[in-house]
Hints:
By secondary structure, the chain is an alpha/beta fold. 34% of the residues lie in helices and 19% in strands.
Amino acid sequence: MRKSKLPCLAVLGASALLGAHFENAVVVLAGSATAPQKKAAQMLVEEIEKRTQLRLKVSSDAPAGAPAIFLREEKGTPESFRITSTGDQIVVAGADDRGVVFGTGYLLRQFHMSRQGLELDSNLKIATAPKYAIRGQQLGYRPKTNAYDAWNVPMWEQYIRELAIFGNNTIELIPPRSDDADDSPHFALPKIEMMVEMSRIANEYGLDVSVWYPAMDKDYSDPATVESALKEWEEVFRKVPRIDAIFVPGGDPGHTQPKYLFALLEKQTASLHRYHPKAQMWLSPQGFSKEWRDEFWQLMAKDPPWLSGLVFGPQVYGSLEDFRALTPKRFPVRFYPDITHSTHAEFPVPDWDLAYATTEGRESINPRPADEAAIFHRYQHFAIGTVTYSEGCNDDVNKFLWSGLLWNPDASAKSILTDYSRFFIGDGMADDFANGLFALEQNWRGPLAGNRQVDVTLAQFKDMERRATPQQRTAKRKGSLRAMEEAQSILDADMRTADALEDRARVFELAEALFQSIHMQLSVDRYKAISIDRGANLDAIDFALNNRVWLENRFEQIRAIGFEPDRIAKIDELLNWTDPGPGGYYDALGFANQRPHLVMGEAYAEDPDFLKSPLTSFGSSPQRGWRTSWATDAEIIQDRPLRMRYTDLNPSAHYKIRVSYGGDARRVAVRLTANSMEVHPFREKGNTPEPVEFDIPQQATAGGTLTLEWTRTPGLGGNGRGTAVSEVWLIKVATPH
């Protein structure tokens, strides 16, 4: 992201000693204060009262001898502020309305607040200006989110206020028509009415309002469709009191050929300016095929005068760095990173365990401070700012981390989260809670079964809360039917310990508390969430994390076989599933510790969006009857190849490959080559990842090394997924005697 030349944060002088008390302070605000400055004073008074039970008075004059907090405007760089604390006086001086609001927010984050206590470090002197011009979050009042659809106007004001306290200057709304249902059982107001209210609230705090506005109609080459769209959008432009920008995604959702989309948006920009003369029009080429990408850049070369800038978001081809290089210099680029999804995403969790993917889904509560900081620093030089892509409050930690980094890229993630924890949790546990957020991220690192950090993290949060061997199978001897009966009894047994059952009950208690407090919908049945995969992970708490359902289905198929030797053969197949035979190799590509032949890419910090590296991805789940080794896979996105490499093969041997194709994009065709020789042409994967076998050309392994390479049909566009492989057996074919 492009930086300003201003200093971001200058600590002119500070003392670590407490000693300045402001329990009896008066907030001094000039009589000529603007509406946002009055909001800043109101914000200061109300947030202090919530945490201390102290209600500070607001006055245009400072009483003699009384502690005072002055909020004032002075000349300076836009949005900047300075804070000085001397004795019993604090001065917050902002360069403009936003500077006063942001300075007041920063002061709130520095106060040490307790019941009937309000203290500040002595002699605090701060001068700071934001590095990036756009610092925002997308706030979608729509059914697809996991809590937002149940919020009323006061809740939205509190949330927007808190974002402002941490330096956000933009909120992005969603119009009444998008790719969501028209209604939600939780809506407090109709969509357009809440949109109007949220715009009003942002305006009162002096914040910008952007609207993510997908072009949803099917055919904008039809003049009648264009005319209808102009009327529909104009009604929104007319009703919403403040709009500073419109962002139209080229896809996901909406999918319009560039030449028709450009023509539509030129007319929509003229309509927009009738109601919001200074509002900007932004566009992203999300999900475009190669043909459409070529057309898009040809149109950009014509320098469309109505277009203000471009947005880089999910499903845009290539990296943000590449995108900036392709974009004509006069057009700024805004970043639109996905901070809300854990898998099937722009920035998936690296090497996520199948157990988490099965029980938590795409939109679980997902604090990822180290990952988000890595994403920010990888791309910070290529955009003028960011409005994040969010689907709800599940990603709040990530929102506030981005807010802090967009203001000051040199700030550590720890310092940002300590501020966050001090403000939302309390001064006494600020450091512990911040460390706990990092620990939650570490819980997601690598195989869960061997991650001892999980129990440590749970113990740490419980402490904070108190303060606020495989059995050998014997089918041949016992007979197949009895062996399956005994195996079934093991599968049916409830192996949960008393501690596990206690933790399960506590999860349900916390879910109810979250629904009652912020209307977070963690269950479809209990709380009317839209789906399990949209954050309703309470419904997945008892899902199978092993092969139980798959085995039960196989047992049923085997029982239907009438001939005992055939049943035994099928049971042997299950027992020896992963055995590649003498001289062979087996890889389960979705498990980080079971894929020695997968060709890896770059380090996460260099490739957080996995444009050059394979990622761990997920298809269906074990609960729905897939093997665990099918439910997770290695995937490469867009048109890049997924590679495996073998060495020290027998040059004179003949090999074949058995492969299970994973992933959720079942109809995307893939091609397999062995040392550039075709093993099979482009073919769809089928409904399930049942293994399929192919011969490897003997000349491919004659040199003793082998590189397998999978590619999807090139130039498809869309989300880029499809090249996904779950299991690979390289089998040495026995030479007949």
